[in-house]
Specification:
The complex is a heterodimer. By secondary structure, chain A is α/β, with parallel strands linked by helices. In chain A, the strands form 3 sheets. In chain A, strands 7, 8, 9, 12, 13, 14, 15, 16, 17 and 18 form a 10-stranded mixed β-sheet that branches. A 6-stranded parallel β-sheet of chain A has the order 3-2-1-4-5-6, sandwiched between helices. A two-stranded antiparallel ribbon of chain A has the order 10-11. Chain A is globular. The two termini of chain A are 42 Å apart. Chain A contains 15 helices and 18 strands. Chain B folds into 2 domains: 173 residues, no CATH class; 92 residues. The N and C termini of chain B lie far apart (46 Å). By secondary structure, chain B is of the alpha/beta class. Chain B is elongated, with a radius of gyration of 22 Å. The chains are: A alpha/beta, B alpha/beta. At the A-B interface, helix 3 and helix 4 of A face helix 7, helix 8 and strand 14 of B.
C-alpha cells in the first residue's frame, strides 16, 4: 500500500456510524469515456455516489476521448447519461457540485500533446479543487490499447504518485485470452502501476448477493457445518443470458462463452462458494483463500465426457424468431466458437473431495439468470415409505445472484391431508423484500472502493492467472477435438449437456 | 386491503393481519422491524406517510397508536380500542395497524402493542410530537431498542434538550441529530482535506435551533475548542466556521440546497446540502438500531475518552 501520512481526523470516530465512508480527496480519469459502459454504467454510478453524499467535496471527473469537445460539451453528455441511467433521482444541486469538476481532454492515445494536457489538467485540479494528487485511471478501452495508454501515462509522469498520494489503474475484462496473454497484460500494467494499485473490475463481485455469500457462510452457524462433502452432493453454478451476441461479433467470435464468462465470473463465484474461512475480511486474506481453492481445482480426466460446448441455433425464443449464431452478421459460418459452455470441476481438498462443481453459461437460453445451487445429499435413511417421499427432491440452497437477488432454501414438507405425503417446498429470502431500495448498483460500490483503496472485491492478478490455468487445457482440448454442439435458442442448452450430467446420475436444475 | 375493527382486542387484530395476508397471497413477508408511532390524530397522516415511504427501504410492521380524547365525562369512563388493519399496497411494503384508544386503555397502550410486535425483530418507537419526558421509562418506550424523538416539534427546544440530557439512555435518538448527518459528513470530509488542527469555531443558525446546538456541542466535544453560537435569520443552520492557523474552513448555506465550502488557500467549491424530508430521516434512523454513542457525546457536549464498548 502507498504511504499516506497518518492524520487523525478528530471529527471521525469508529463509534460514529452515521458518517458514511466518504472517499478521500480524489479524481477519476476515464479513458474511452464515449463508450457504452461509460455512459450507461460509470457516469450514472459517479452521479449516484455524489447524490448519496459519498464523494469528497472537490471530486473531479476527467474524460479522455477522440472527440472535438469542450468541457461543457462533455458535461452535457454526462448530464444526458445521468438523466437517462442514474438510479437515484436527479437533483440540480448535486449536479452543480459535480459539474464544476468536469474536464475533457480531446485526443488520441498516441497524442503526446493530449497527455501533456491531461497532466496540466490534473495539476490544475489539485490546485483548484484540492484533489490532493489522488487519481484513478479507468481504462474503459479495448485491451489492445492498454499497453499504449499505460506507456503514455508512464512517459508523462501521470502514473507516479506524488509523495503522500496515490495513483490507481482500473481495468475491465477480458484480462487476456489465455494464461500467456494474461501474463503479458499483467506485465504491461504492473510495469507502470504497483500491483496493489491495479483494480480489476469483475462487476459480479460488486453485487450485494455475491458479498452476501461470505456473510451467509461465515456470519451464521447454521450453514457452515453442512457446507462440505459429508452433506453436499454437488454444486451447480449457472449464468444464463437470453440475448445473443448482438453487435459484438468482432469481439466474441474466437473468444466464446467459456473465456468470456467461466474464466472470470463463474470461477470467482465458485471460489467464494468453496473457499475456507479467511483469517479476516481484508483483501490479502481473501486472496489467500480464493487462491487456495483455485489451485485445488482439478479437471476431469476425460474432458470429452465432462465438458460441453455449443452454439445457439435458429429457433423461436420467448415468442420471437431469432437467428442462429452461425447466421449472425459478421460470424464465419464455419465458426466453432462456443456460445454455451458447461464444465465439471473437482476441488481436491478435504472439504470438497468427490463433490463435483458444474459450471455452465450460455447466450440465448431460457431467461436471464445467475445462480449458485448447492444441492444436498438425500437423507441417509427415511422412516417414510417410498410412496410418501416419491415427490421429494434433494434439499438445496440456491443463491440467486440476478435478477431478483436473494436466497432460496428447498426442503420437503408434509402435504396437508390424511395420508403421509412429502413434497418439496421453498423458503425464500429476497433482497427486494427485506431491504427494498438500498441495494446500490455494482459499479457504484466498485468505484467507491477504488477511491477508498479497498481491494476486497477485486480479483488480483494471481487469481486471473490461476483461472486461466484451469480453463486453458479445456480450450486446448476443444480446439483439437470434436465439434461444437447446437442448441435451440430459448432452450436450456444442448442435449449433450444433459447427457454430461446424466453420466454422473444427476440433472441440471431449471433455474 | 383494509379491515376495520371496532371495540376490539390485540388477538382479534392478529387474526385480521393473518387474514389480510392470506387474502393478498403473501403468507410470509420479510419484514425486518416493528415501528411504533405514538401520535395524535392531527399528526397521524403525515407520520404514517413518512413511515410508509421509509418502509420501502426497511419493510416493517407499523403500529400507530393514537390516543383519542373523549369530550364528556361519561364517555371518559368507557374504555375502547378501535383498529384499522392495512396490508398490501395500502401499507407501503409492510403492514400497518392504526390503533385508536379511548378511555382507560389509553394508559395501557403497551398491553395492546406487545402482542402485535413481530417475533424477534427489533422495535422502534417514534414520537413525532409530544414525546414523554423520559422516553426509555415510558411504557411504550421500554418495549423498544430505539426511541426517536424530535426536538423540532417542541415548544421550547433548548429546555427540552436539557431534559433529554438528563434522561438519556442508550437507544435514544433525535431527528434534530439525524438532520445533521450531511453537515457532519461534509465537515469531516473538509477536515480530511485540510489536515490541520482547529483553533476556534462558530455555528451560525436561526435562534433556538436545537440542531445547531447539538452540532456546536458535537464540535466542542470532538475538537476541544469553544464554539460560538451566532444567531442569523436562518433557515435552520446557515454556516459553520472552523478557524485554523492558516485561515477559516467555512461551509456556508445561506438558503436553498446549495452550500459553499471554502478551505484556506483553495478556491471555494459548491456542495449539495439539501434539507431532507421526514421519510428520509426515518430511513436513516432505521439503518442502525444499536445505541448511537455519538449522539450521547453531542448531547453532553464533552469528549468521552472511555473505550467504546463494542471494540
Amino acid at each position: 500500500m502507498s504511504t499516506i501520512p497518518v492524520w487523525d481526523n478528530p471529527l471521525r470516530d469508529p463509534r460514529d456510524r452515521r458518517l458514511p465512508r466518504i472517499a478521500g480527496p480524489s479524481g477519476l480519469v476515464i479513458f474511452g469515456v464515449t463508450g457504452d459502459l461509460s455512459r450507461k454504467k460509470l457516469m450514472p454510478a459517479v452521479y449516484d455516489l455524489a447524490n448519496r453524499g459519498l464523494l469528497p467535496p472537490g471530486f473531479s471527473l476527467l474524460g479522455f476521448a477522440r472527440r472535438d469537445w469542450e468541457d461543457e460539451d462533455f458535461a452535457e453528455i454526462v448530464h444526458d447519461a445521468v438523466r437517462e441511467h442514474a438510479r437515484t433521482p436527479f437533483r440540480e444541486e448535486v449536479w452543480q457540485q459535480l459539474a464544476e469538476g468536469m474536464r475533457f481532454i480531446p485526443g488520441d492515445f498516441d497524442d503526446d500533446d493530449a497527455f501533456k494536457q491531461l497532466k496540466t489538467a490534473v495539476e490544475e485540479l489539485d490546485a483548484a479543487r484540492g484533489t490532493g494528487g489522488n487519481f484513478a485511471f479507468y481504462l474503459s478501452v479495448p485491451p489492445k490499447f492498454f499497453p499504449k495508454v499505460a506507456e503514455q501515462l508512464k512517459k508523462h509522469g501521470l502514473a507516479k504518485a506524488p509523495e503522500g498520494s496515490w495513483r490507481r489503474a482500473v481495468i475491465e475484462k477480458p484480462f487476456g485470452h489465455d494464461l500467456a496473454s494474461a501474463r503479458d497484460l499483467n506485465a504491461v500494467v504492473h510495469d507502470v502501476f504497483d500491483p496493489d494499485q491495479v483494480f480489476r473490475i469483475d462487476h459480479y463481485l460488486g453485487k450485494e448477493t455475491v458479498q452476501n455469500i461470505l456473510a451467509l457462510r461465515f456470519a451464521n452457524t447454521m450453514f457452515e457445518p453442512i457446507w462440505n462433502r459429508s452433506f453436499v452432493d454437488h454444486v451447480q453454478i449457472t449464468m444464463a443470458e437470453d440475448i445473443g451476441i448482438g453487435g459484438r461479433a468482432g469481439y466474441y467470435d474466437g473468444i466464446g462463452s467459456a473465456r468470456d464468462v467461466i474464466q472470470n465470473h463463474l470461477l470467482q463465484l465458485m471460489a467464494l462458494t468453496a473457499m475456507e474461512e479467511p483469517a479476516s475480511f481484508d483483501a490479502a486474506s481473501l486472496l489467500t483463500e480464493k487462491l487456495k481453492v483455485l489451485k485445488a481445482v482439478k479437471l476431469p480426466d476425460d474432458l470429452g465426457d465432462h465438458t460441453v460446448r455449443a452454439q445457439y441455433a435458429a429457433a423461436w425464443q420467448g415468442g420471437e424468431k431469432v437467428r442462429g449464431y452461425l447466421e449472425e452478421e459478421g460470424i464465419d459460418p464455419a465458426s466453432t466458437t462456443d456460445t454455451y459452455a458447461a464444465v465439471k470441476l473437482n476441488v481436491d481438498n478435504r472439504r470438497w473431495a468427490g463433490v463435483p462443481f458444474y459450471l455452465r453459461t450460455g447466450k440465448r437460453l431460457g431467461r436471464r439468470v445467475t445462480e449458485i445451487a448447492v444441492v444436498f445429499q438425500r437423507a441417509p435413511h427415511s422412516p417414510f415409505d417410498s410412496t410418501a417421499t416419491e415427490e421429494l427432491g434433494q434439499n438445496a440452497i440456491v443463491i440467486r445472484v440476478q435478477p431478483d437477488e436473494g436466497i432460496t432454501v428447498r426442503f420437503g414438507s408434509k402435504v396437508p391431508g390424511t395420508s403421509m405425503e412429502i413434497r418439496d417446498v421453498t423458503m425464500d429470502f429476497a433482497y427486494g423484500e427485506s431491504f427494498t431500495e438500498s441495494s446500490p448498483e455494482a459499479y457504484e460500490r466498485l468505484i467507491l472502493d477504488v477511491l477508498l483503496g479497498d481491494a476486497n472485491l477485486f480479483p488480483r492478478h494471481q487469481e486471473v492467472e490461476e483461472s486461466w490455468k484451469i480453463l486453458d487445457p479445456i480450450e486446448e482440448y476443444w480446439a483439437a477435438h470434436g465439434k461444437t454442439a447446437q442448441y435451440a435458442s430459448g432452450s436450456w442448452g444442448p442435449e449433450e449437456a444433459d447427457e454430461m450430467l446424466a453420466r454422473d446420475g444427476r440433472s441440471w436444475r431449471r433455474p | 386491503m383494509k379491515i376495520d375493527l371496532t371495540d376490539t382486542t390485540a388477538s382479534k387484530i392478529n387474526k385480521a393481519l393473518v387474514k389480510g395476508r392470506r387474502a393478498i397471497g403473501t403468507p410470509a413477508v420479510g419484514m425486518v422491524l416493528t415501528m411504533v408511532i405514538v401520535t395524535d390524530e392531527e399528526n397521524a397522516y403525515d407520520s404514517i406517510k413518512a413511515a410508509e415511504e421509509a418502509s420501502h427501504e426497511h419493510p416493517s410492521r407499523t403500529l400507530v397508536v393514537i390516543k383519542r380524547h373523549a369530550r364528556t365525562p361519561r364517555e371518559r369512563t368507557q374504555s375502547r380500542l378501535d383498529a384499522e388493519v392495512r396490508v398490501g399496497s395500502e401499507a407501503g411494503t409492510g403492514e400497518t395497524v392504526i390503533l385508536r384508544t379511548y378511555g382507560e386503555v389509553s394508559d395501557h397502550a403497551d398491553s395492546v402493542v406487545l402482542p402485535l410486535l413481530l417475533p424477534d425483530a427489533p422495535v422502534v418507537v417514534w414520537w413525532p410530537v409530544d414525546a414523554p419526558q423520559n422516553p426509555s421509562k415510558d411504557p411504550l418506550g421500554a418495549l423498544a431498542q430505539r426511541r426517536i424523538t424530535d426536538l423540532y416539534a417542541v415548544e421550547n427546544p433548548i429546555e427540552a434538550l436539557r431534559s433529554r440530557i438528563r434522561s438519556y439512555a442508550p437507544g435514544d435518538t433525535d431527528l434534530a441529530w439525524t438532520r445533521l448527518t450531511p453537515w457532519r459528513s461534509m465537515l469531516a470530509a473538509a477536515l480530511d482535506q485540510a489536515r490541520v488542527p482547529i483553533v476556534s469555531g462558530a455555528v451560525e443558525a436561526e435562534a433556538e435551533n436545537p440542531a445547531a446546538e447539538l452540532l456546536a456541542r458535537w464540535l466542542e466535544a470532538r475538537l476541544n475548542v469553544t464554539i460560538d453560537r451566532v444567531v442569523t435569520a436562518g433557515p435552520v443552520v446557515t454556516a459553520v466556521r472552523l478557524g485554523t492557523a492558516g485561515g477559516d474552513i467555512v461551509i456556508d448555506r445561506p438558503e436553498g440546497p446549495l452550500a459553499t465550502l471554502s478551505l484556506p488557500g483553495q478556491p471555494p467549491r459548491t456542495l449539495a446540502l439539501k434539507v431532507r424530508t421526514t421519510s428520509e430521516l426515518i430511513a436513516e434512523e432505521l439503518r442502525r438500531l444499536d445505541a448511537d454513542e455519538m449522539y450521547a457525546v453531542a448531547l453532553r457536549g464533552e469528549g468521552t475518552k472511555e473505550t467504546p464498548s463494542h471494540v
